[in-house]
Write a structure and sequence with these properties.
globular; alpha+beta; five-stranded mixed sheet; 42% helix
Length: 233
């Protein structure tokens, strides 16, 4: 029998976590309340196990895991639809939440979701044979996008990512390409929304909507445009 590794993830209370994964299409295959709360959820070959800790703070969680799939687009659409049906909206900030689908600099197309226990679940599909981290681009705005994406989706340092983008957008000696400007503005709006500044998010969204792109640029920026549409709903 081949080996199998199962993440054991903490939470404060089990039921909200089980409800979250039920919305995503997982089946609860084990649930106990005593002698301590514990649950197991499964969806296909994905299995996650959760245990409750009374003093656990989900906002301070660093736990999580990476799920690799060969059809990330379908999983993303299914998870978003399930969350919208369960919560009446697609949660994009706070706990729980689901982030945008995007290509990462290490050869994965992925999205990040965080459950009510604060566990970060990255779901990705390999899109390149080269899985090593790409070199940091030399261009000012390409470098800013590269680093901001890593701060948001790998390090989960939202204020740090915001500072990188603000520094790039504040430059006066050079300008980003329209595609770079759009991506920077959309990501900055997303960060503002997640950090609780809705007014600032709206200003960045308005600026992003005014960026004019060629057909080729629109195709290249399709993920950013999709996120722009989601944030403006």
């Amino acid at each position: 029998m081949p080996e199998k590794m199962i993440p054991l993830l903490p939470c404060r209370t089990v039921q909200p976590v089980v409800d979250f994964y039920t919305a995503l299409g997982f089946e609860t295959t084990f649930f106990q309340k005593s002698p301590y709360p514990y649950a197991v959820v499964e969806r296909g070959r994905i299995e996650l196990q959760f245990f409750a800790m009374k003093e656990y703070d989900p906002q301070q969680s660093y736990s999580g895991c990476y799920v690799v799939t060969d059809d990330v687009e379908t999983l993303y659409a299914a998870f978003r639809a399930g969350l919208k049906a369960a919560y009446g909206r697609i949660p994009t900030r706070g706990l729980p939440r689901i982030g945008p689908l995007k290509d990462m600099s290490y050869g994965m197309r992925q999205f990040l979701m965080t459950d009510p226990g604060g566990n970060s679940i990255r779901v990705g599909q390999q899109i390149s044979e080269d899985q090593s981290m790409r070199p940091v681009p030399k261009g000012t705005f390409a470098r800013a996008l590269h680093m901001a994406d890593l701060f948001v989706d790998s390090k989960e340092d939202l204020p740090g990512a915001a500072k990188i983008i603000d520094r790039a957008l504040g430059l006066t000696g050079e300008r980003p390409t329209p595609e770079q400007e759009l991506r920077l503005l959309v990501l900055r709006a997303d960060l503002a929304r997640r950090l609780g500044d809705d007014a600032l998010a709206e200003r960045f969204l308005e600026r992003a909507a005014d960026v004019r792109l060629t057909d080729a640029e629109r195709e290249s920026a399709r993920d950013a445009l999709a996120r722009l549409a989601e944030l403006r709903e």
